[in-house]
Design goal:
This protein is of the alpha+beta class and 109 residues long. It contains 1 helix and 7 strands, in the order βββββαββ. It starts with a strand and ends with a strand.
């Protein structure tokens, strides 16, 4: 089961215990599309262009062991969707909610 949430604080997608987060208004990294991958109080940024993790982020052992079997494959499968979220947020738009079947709607409607 995959859950996807869109909140004022960003777009969240939960998958196999990891949370993939695209934050809005990240002016400091505005020209570097990336996603935060979070689990158990740890967060590591991955480039949406190269799918590599940012070298300056502390990487817990669990991330290193799960990169090949969970994180990188998930990023490869969902790169386009995450880039859409990134582009929508960077242009000041809030993306719609997406259900399990890929149908989109705005929570207000």
């Amino acid at each position: 089961i995959r859950f996807c949430y869109f909140l004022v604080g960003g777009a969240f997608i939960h998958y196999m215990g990891y949370k993939f987060v695209v934050h809005p208004n990240e002016d400091i990294h505005k020209n570097s599309p990336h996603v935060h991958v979070c689990k158990d109080d740890h967060s590591v940024r991955y480039s949406l262009e190269t799918l590599e993790r940012y070298k300056q982020d502390k990487v817990p052992h669990s991330f290193i062991s799960d990169e090949k079997k969970i994180i990188i494959p998930y990023l490869k499968m969902n790169r386009e969707k995450l880039l859409r979220f990134w582009n929508l947020y960077m242009n000041g738009f809030v993306p719609p909610v997406e259900d399990e079947k890929g149908r989109q709607y705005y929570a207000e409607s």
